[in-house]
Amino acid sequence: MKTMHRFAVSAIAAAVLLGLGGCDTMSARDRDTAIGAGVGAVGGAVLTGGSAVGTVGGAAVGGLIGNQVGKGDDRRYDDRR
Questions:
Q1: pTM of the full predicted structure?
Q2: pLDDT of the chain along its 81 residues, tens only?
Q3: How far is C-alpha 5 from the chain's CA centre?
Q4: Would you list the domain boundaries of the chain?
């Protein structure tokens, strides 16, 4: 059962990250925030055995970290190419 839960969480995370590829209009900071929130949510879910509080807490912390990582780079994602 635990393996199935981890697989489901991983599949959802992969779908979210792939979906972010279509967000051309996002700034680099917005993209970093969204990626951080997604990674944090998955990490929180895995570390707490899938508890909602752990997932939401992980998303909040991950989003905050991602936002701060992208703080100095407010260019659009297309400008990086």
A1: 0.63
A2: 577 667 777 777 776 666 666 666 778 888 888 888 888 888 888 888 888 888 888 889 998 998 898 776 655 555 554
A3: 18
A4: 2-80
